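Let's sit down with a protein and look at its sequence and fold side by side. Go ahead whenever you are ready, and we will take it from there.
>
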Amino acid sequence: MEREVVITADGSSTIHLPEWDEQYHSKHGAIQEAYHVFIKHGLHHFCNGSEASKNMTSTAVQKTEGFSKSEVSILEIGFGTGLNAFITLLEAEKLSILVNYFGVEGYPVAMNEVLQLNYPTQLEANKKELLFKRMHEVSWDEQHEISKYFSLTKQKRFFSEINEVEVFNIIYFDAFGARVQPELWTEPVFQKMYNALQEHGVLVTYAAKGSVRRAMQAVGFLVEKLPGPPGKREMLRATKQF
């Protein structure tokens, strides 16, 4: 399928699929969307001393600037351009949180496309540009230490092949929208997500469709509607509770 790198409203780049009229990130701002959905309402929410933080995998939980200093395991559904992973790396280093990151992708982005993405510059993180490139260059299906606070395991497989049980604290559900891939937003897929999370784990996504919310609720998630990123009225956060 044809892919082209384009610039979104906040100046950050994304990849556009003309055949589907679909983007890897919001056309209203790729970086803005990533921070709002996955960092603010995912990583920060989980690490801000809420009930969920009591269930992190570290044996010692300490408070630092309102966040829990610990080890967090994150699964990203749709590794794509690596934007969400790169911002998470920057946040992990800022907050001294150890992040074990697992990115699942069925159709990896080509390196010539990666080199056109402007995330290090737009994030004022040019000193970390080599780390961004390394995230894309490292081998698949092996764990790699990208920085002191961030390890990455990229998995080249389809979402339907995810069968982990109670492994992850957070899921970034960043699949293509239900308009073009409705099969990714169904009860069987969210059952796999529910199974993969530890107790009090959270799943965050930019989506807010009623059918998506109902599919999440059907498998046992407690689902919240939250204000969406620029260009979207709402988004969803789902929490696993027993």
